[in-house]
Amino acid sequence: MKIVLLGSGNVATHLAKALKVEGEDVVQVYSPNLNHAKLLAGAIEADGINDLNEVEQYADLYIISVKDDAIESIARSLSNVTGLVVHTSGTTDINILSSQVRKAGVFYPLQTFSKDKEVSFENIPICIEANGEIQLAILKNLAAKMSRKVHELNGEKRKILHLAAVFACNFPNHLYALANKILNQNGLDFDIIRPLIAETADKVMSNLPENVQTGPAIRADENTLTTHLSMLTDMPELQNIYQTLSNSIKLTLK
Amino acid sequence: MKIVLLGSGNVATHLAKALKVEGEDVVQVYSPNLNHAKLLAGAIEADGINDLNEVEQYADLYIISVKDDAIESIARSLSNVTGLVVHTSGTTDINILSSQVRKAGVFYPLQTFSKDKEVSFENIPICIEANGEIQLAILKNLAAKMSRKVHELNGEKRKILHLAAVFACNFPNHLYALANKILNQNGLDFDIIRPLIAETADKVMSNLPENVQTGPAIRADENTLTTHLSMLTDMPELQNIYQTLSNSIKLTLK
Known about the structure:
The structure is a homodimer of 254-residue chains. In chain A, 46% of the residues lie in helices and 14% in strands. Chain A is of the alpha/beta class and 254 residues long. In chain A, helix 8 packs antiparallel against helix 9 (236-251). Chain A starts with a strand and ends with a helix. At the A-B interface, helix 6, helix 7, helix 8 and helix 9 of A face helix 6, helix 7, helix 8 and helix 9 of B.
């Protein structure tokens, strides 16, 4: 397949490399910033462009992988293409595309991507949706080449999944950062809690999290909870988070 | 070393098995519940007892691994022993022991233990403290046999570490549980986000979490934040947590 990639952020970068591995022919990478476009394009032997008028009109697939609020205007510039146009967003409705182009779809890889961290697509769930059977077949085929986990999900379910992903990924990562803040302020290194973080995630690979909750809140250990809250007096924001999450854990006891 | 283990919970269970692997001689396991004592004792060829008066008086090491508020009364029953008495708590001061026994210490493995999940002690940081050089040497030696990561920490630092561990382990696990709640209410399975959880933890093994934060809050993507909050209207507790943690992530942008 001849593919045009519109975007050069974290998702676009990882997607581009995974498509390349599968032997797909990514011909162009677009970014409003030409340097960004060329940098990613260079890594996958494509052309980097920063002008939407230069987009190849006869590609099979256009992948829009940009911030949610930029998807619509890019889709508008593709209204004349005959190929399939997809976005990679968890929250954005497919209609934002199908109102602009004839063949529309969604190709949402459920993963957290950071530029310098390699990930194997094989285990990444890819959620697909399309506005027609042929389009869906194209996406299903492409997704199945890249991943062992392909899910056909409508926009409603995809949004739910994205919301759950914020709880399961973005928030835990922020809590790791707060833990690091506490450690650093007291001359301790993040390295000391890395094994704990790894095991916490590993435990829920074969268990449901509600069955393996540990810590003072689930033990209703009021002494420790009070001690911890008092240790956070100088960090009211963290104290509030500690209180909110501990209360939520205690609710599961009822 | 001849060791008596007082406790039969998650920490005690994993510790007992790890001590056995290292060839240490755990002679007794105490629990107020005789069945619990015998169950764990049976697994490591020790005697199970439920009467503190039956505790062997000439062991080298007594490990008190029970709920924090039960440590003191058990320590009191050991006031006549000549061996080293340690607890395994992150929050409890060493003084609670040294006021009762001559040789006191702390042996705190920084990990989350669940009964049915095997863990290798090799990578678990063990934090030690003692009320004398000889006691410290004994604990250092034992810890180094079990783990590659031995930290000599005073009670103040250990408490900080325990607090950080709540943020890095107990709270993330609860957030996994909330994600599962959202998924289940919408007919989706937890399995779909397991790869995301694994990668989120894996990313911070070689990065600092504040450098790899992703998601709508760090992008200041107000549309998605508003959509997500409105999706949680029927779950005010989760809505509050979403708001609190998103605000905290946004604070890091300043």
